[in-house]
Amino acid sequence: MKKFRFSMILVLTLVLILSACATPAVQTPPEEPSGETTLVVWDQFYREEESKVIETLNAEFEAAHAGVKIERETKVLADLQMTVKLALGESDGPDVAQVNQGRSDMGALVESGLLLPLDDYIATYSWGNVFSSSV
Q1: Surface-to-core class of residue 73, CB atoms within 10 Å of its CB (0-12 exposed, 13-18 middle, 19+ buried)
Q2: Phi, psi (5° rounding) for residue 74?
Q3: What is the distance between the alpha carbons of residues 55 and 70, in angstroms, rounded to a whole number?
Q4: Which of 69, 19, 65, 7 is nearest to 41 (CA)?
Q5: Does the reported pTM lie above 0.70?
Q6: Please, which residues bridge with residue 74 across strands?
Q7: Which run of H or E residues covers position 96?
Q8: In the chain, N or C terminus with fewer CB closer than 10 Å?
Q9: For the stretch 12-42, what's the b/e string if a residue is b when 16 or more beta carbons lie within 10 angstroms of its beta carbon?
Q10: What DSSP string runs through 13-82?
Q11: pLDDT of residue 118
């Protein structure tokens, strides 16, 4: 149960960050994907056991999504907190970054417009049945 909960929290965090990287909706038809897509992911799971879980999840994600490769960079919490806000606002920053849920971290990113609401995803994937409303 702990692994499932941990996995779901990670997925939720990844979706939060990915939604911040999304471009606004346009009326033109989508282009056909070409080649491989690399997602740069920053997280703080540097401890051996945590890192093994994340590497397994990344491998499963890559296997389920042909043409997607995850380039992972681990950082200690203090480094993430210092760099993530600036990095997410840059074109060469990470596509996905783990962020603390607190007001000083995630709240600042929301206020800066770097994260978007996940209400539609919560309804679509029934996350409201899995996570408490505080998440």
Answers
A1: exposed
A2: -95, 145
A3: 10
A4: 69
A5: no
A6: 43
A7: strand 96-97
A8: N
A9: bbbbbbbebbeeeeeeeeeeeeeeeeebbbb
A10: HHHHHHHHHPPPP-SSPPPPP-S-EEEEEEE---SHHHHHHHHHHHHHHHHHSTTEEEEEEE--HHHHHH
A11: 80
